[in-house]
Amino acid sequence: MAVDLEFAPKTKRPAGEPCCEPVVYPDVAREQAERIATIAKALGDPIRLQLVDVLRKHAGKVCVCELVPLFDLSQPTVSHHLKKLREAGIVGSERRGLWAYYYVIPESLEEFSAWLS
Amino acid sequence: MAVDLEFAPKTKRPAGEPCCEPVVYPDVAREQAERIATIAKALGDPIRLQLVDVLRKHAGKVCVCELVPLFDLSQPTVSHHLKKLREAGIVGSERRGLWAYYYVIPESLEEFSAWLS
DNA sequence: CCTATGTATTGACAAACGTGATTTCAATAG
DNA sequence: CTATTGAAATCACGTTTGTCAATACATAGG
User: Fold this and answer.
1) What is the pLDDT of residues A52-111, one digit of tens each?
2) CB of residue B13 closer than 7 A to nucleic acid strand C?
3) Cβ within 8 Å of residue A75, ≥6 positions away
4) Chain A contacts of B41, Cβ < 8 Å?
5) pTM, whole model, 2 decimals?
6) N- to C-terminal Cα distance for chain B?
7) Which nucleotide is nearest to A45 (CA to C1')?
8) Beta bridge partners of A104
9) Tens digits of per-residue pLDDT, B11-65?
10) How far is CA B1 from CA A63, B15, B17, in A?
11) B107: buried, middle or exposed (CB in 10 Å: 19+, 13-18, 0-12)?
């Protein structure tokens, strides 16, 4: 948060003198940045973004067998992307018999959404 | 957008019969997903997220010489991250004499922000 | 048991990524 | 001109990523 940087027009300095005082970056901001960046990274692939998009538009849970034909990708690749989203905490999954159903965990996107606004 | 997926409890099918009708995924959604994923990918690194965070908190432009000491990174590495952000269209830069000033392009985050909300 | 089916994991490989050391470029001061 | 300084580009490196083929795992039906 409150990193207090001053913006002032600069002129060349007498050489040896540092350009500006080093600013301490609060650790809390770093941790938050890491959390948010983890979410952003998981969303940083078009396939995964579309997966989340589809899952979000269905309030309920969607079967993997419905997700795979949406993309021109092999089933293992889709499964890999779903795993990434799971590891990032963006989606959850549930097995029902042979089928696996995925759903978005809405709270996982809240901090990111708040930061972005 | 409107991908019409039905969610229905599944039972084992007679083998050979597909699990569900393939759904056509609209190209417009794909292009939007690619645009948004590009932004997300650029934000998917803690350093870059903090850079954007700092720049956003300063409505004006911030000198690179003020950004480098915020991180325990070499100047070329910070410059590299700034380049990534520039390539994603998230930030712009301006040279004023020896110094380079960076600023956030707010509109670049709008589509992402809207999608996320 | 055995077979079939949906999903996940493993292995492999090229491409991209994050980083630092070094170098190059641009602009200012003398 | 030369020397100096801030920033970007280049090179090198180990790591991670996205993808598929092949395999393994889990569950259901016979």
Assistant:
1) 999 999 888 999 999 999 999 999 999 999 999 999 999 999 999 999 999 999 999 999
2) yes
3) A64, A68
4) 40-41, 44-45
5) 0.85
6) 15
7) D18
8) A91
9) 444 444 455 555 666 677 899 999 999 999 999 999 999 999 999 998 789 999 9
10) 19, 32, 28
11) exposed
